[in-house]
Structures are given as C-alpha cells and as structure tokens.
Amino acid sequence: MESKQMLSGGGNHDKLAEAIAKIGNQLVETIAKELKEINLLREAEYKNKIKDKNFTDILIDVVESHELCVKNFFSVLVDNTDWKPISHTECKFGKWYYSINEEDIKSKYGDKALKLFKKTGQSHKEFHEIGAKIIDYYRSNELKKVISNLTELSDKSIDIVYGCIALAQSI
C-alpha cells in the first residue's frame, strides 16, 4: 500500500498522505501478523484443545474478512479509490455477529466467552462508525481530522482481532 499522493496541494498534503499510508501499512502488517497467530487455531494439535472447531473456523474467517475491509478502507485514503464502507450489520463479520444468539454463547461457552463476544462486537460497531467518519473527513479534504481519528480506528481494529483470538481460546 504505497501512497500515490492523490491529494492535491503538495507540501503538507503530501506529508499527510504519507502519514496516512504509513498508518495503513502498520495496521495491515499488524493484522497480517495476528492472522498468522490465529491460523495456529487451524492446526490439528492446537484445535484438539478447542471444543467447537466450527465456531473457531468462523472466527478465523471473519478476521480474514476484517483484514480485507481494512485494506479497502486504506485504499480510499492512500489510492483515492471510490470504495464505500458498509454498515457494521452488512459486512461479513456483522452478518455473522448479529445472527448469533447471545444466550447460546453463554449456555455453550460460559460468561467469559459472552463477555468477549459482546466486547468484540462493540469494537466492530465502533470500527465501522469511526471508519465512515474518517472517509467523510477525507472526502471533505479535512485531512487533519483524518489523521487524528486513525489511531482510534487502528485500536478498534486490533481489538476486533485480539477479541476473536481470545474468544476462540476461551471456548
């Protein structure tokens, strides 16, 4: 994800575009690193410790889907693509999350898993809200607001990934 510096005006705009690209690259690298860790869940030796392999496979799948969403998001900021974010209930993670009955999580996996499930879902919702706001700022050429909100977006993204890992390990 190299910055193509699509922003006009040079100087400060170029520096902001570079900062955005750097943050985007760091976030994608972090998620890729965590995907390697979460893929350990697919290994038979590790999976034998997990009660519900299908649920774990779904968690892995939604984390991979989240990584694609992050890449698409940064493609707007770095390459000026016309990608439009969807709501937290319409993406693959959201469709899965909102199809799950919380009482089923509690009864099958316990209170700890339910707490992790809810926390991860809240981070996911906030990720979408912050992301949409950032893209609006970007398209309005309010680049300082873009930069000031990217850390929070990155934190929410990492919370989603770690939340899925913790949830998989708790079941």
Sequence-ordered SSE layout with sheet pairings:
Elements (H helix, E strand, L loop, with lengths): L11 H27 L5 H4 L5 H27 L12 H6 L4 H8 L1 H29 L3 H28 L1
Helix pairs in contact: 1-3, 1-7, 3-7, 5-6, 6-7
* Rg (C-alpha, Å): 17 Å
The description of the largest β-sheet is:
none
Mean pLDDT score: 80
Please report the total strand number as a whole number: 0
Task: State the separation between the terminal residues, measured CA to CA.
Answer: 36 Å
* Structural class by helix and strand composition: mainly alpha
Strand content: under 5%
Overall morphology: elongated
Number of helices: 7
Helix share bin: over 70%
Order of helices and strands: HHHHHHH
Low-confidence stretches: 1-9
